[in-house]
Amino acid sequence: MSMMDPSEEFPEEDIQTIVKPAIAQLLNGVQFNPSKVNDWCNTIIDTCLKELQSLSKPYKYVITCVIMQKNGGGMTTSAACYWDGGKDGKTRVPFENDTMHCIVTVYGLSVNIDTKDDEV
Amino acid sequence: MPGAQPNLEPPPFSMKATQKRLEAIIKEVQEVNLGNDWKYTADDANVMTKKVSDEVKDRLRDLGLPRYKFLVQVVLGQKVGEGMHMGCRTLWDQDTDAYATVTHGNDDYFCTATAYGVYQY
């Protein structure tokens, strides 16, 4: 018999703490630049993924990053997930400055860990 | 009751979520729902993104692949000359997990739908 171990829950706050500074330090006060946007995307996601790995939680992660220039155009996003409602989760971290929007979404999918109780 | 026992064997190929399988479903759902003549309006877009993402998710579930979890993300935007870039990274098992992304659109809108299939051990 075991209750939901807090270390096994989807670490939503930890992810927010990791992603927000990763975006801000790269994009704060920066102008949208189409030749650099690829590198920004890669850097943000790579930084986040490395730090998520170091959390050492029993999760697989999917991180997506959308960077869009502010030009008056509309954009809508939606996500549908078929997963374990109790253990899996997602977090969305929006960011914007004068010239662009950046939305990073992190999905965490739990992995079964084989925990063998020692027999006494 | 704790979660089911982990199954450390990867699934056989016929039971894997492969990129081709995911891509075929996304393409079909986009073509049926959006086609070539759809125009972007804020209200319509709201309804349409949810519809497309739910439909892709339902069809992925109906593939009947055991022990797979699915994520579907749909981005629907208006083309007004803005620049946009999307990227993704995953931390998963290359042997069992896969993703597919398809971009559909015309001069007025673009719709990028991405589906991820993740195996639960």
Describe the fold and architecture.
Chain A: This is Dynein light chain. Chain A: It comes from Triparma retinervis. Chain A: One of its GO terms (molecular function) is dynein intermediate chain binding. Chain A: Pfam families: Tctex-1 (PF03645). The complex is a heterodimer of chains A (120) and B (121). Chain A has 2 helices and 4 strands; from the N terminus they run ααββββ. Chain A is an alpha+beta fold. Chain A has a 3-stranded antiparallel β-sheet with strand order 1-4-3, covered by helices on one side. In chain A, helix 1 packs antiparallel against helix 2. The two termini of chain A are 16 Å apart. Chain B is an alpha+beta fold and 121 residues long. Chain B is 30% helix and 31% strand. A 3-stranded antiparallel β-sheet of chain B has the order 1-4-3, with helices on one face. In chain B, helix 1 packs antiparallel against helix 2. Chain B starts with 18 loop residues before the first helix and ends with a strand. At the A-B interface, helix 2, strand 1, strand 2 and strand 4 of A face helix 2, strand 1, strand 2 and strand 4 of B. Strand 2 of chain A pairs antiparallel with strand 1 of chain B, so a sheet runs across the interface.
The end-to-end span of chain B amounts to 17 Å
The 3D shape of chain A can be described as elongated
Give, in spatial order, the strands making up the sheet with the most strands of chain B. 1-4-3
Task: Tell me the CATH superfamily of chain B.
Answer: Tctex-1
Low-confidence stretches of chain A: none
Number of E-type strands of chain B: 4
Strand content of chain B: 25-35%
GO cellular component, one term (chain B): cytoplasmic dynein complex
Protein name (chain B): Dynein light chain
GO molecular function (chain B): dynein intermediate chain binding
Pfam family, one (chain B): Tctex-1
